[in-house]
Amino acid sequence: MSRIDHRLRLLFDPDVLHAGLVAGGACVLSAGLVYVGYFVHVARTARRAPCAPDDGRCLLLFGKHAPQGRIDADFAARLERAAHLWRERPPQVIVLLGGGADGHPSEAQVAHAALLDRGVAEDAPLRLEHRSRDTLQNLRNARSLLADRAADEPVTLLSNRYHLARCALFARQLGMRAELCAAEPALRWTPGTLYRIAGEAAYVCWVDIGTRWARRIGHRRMLAKVT
Question: CATH number, domain at 124?
Answer without folding.
Answer: 3.40.50.620
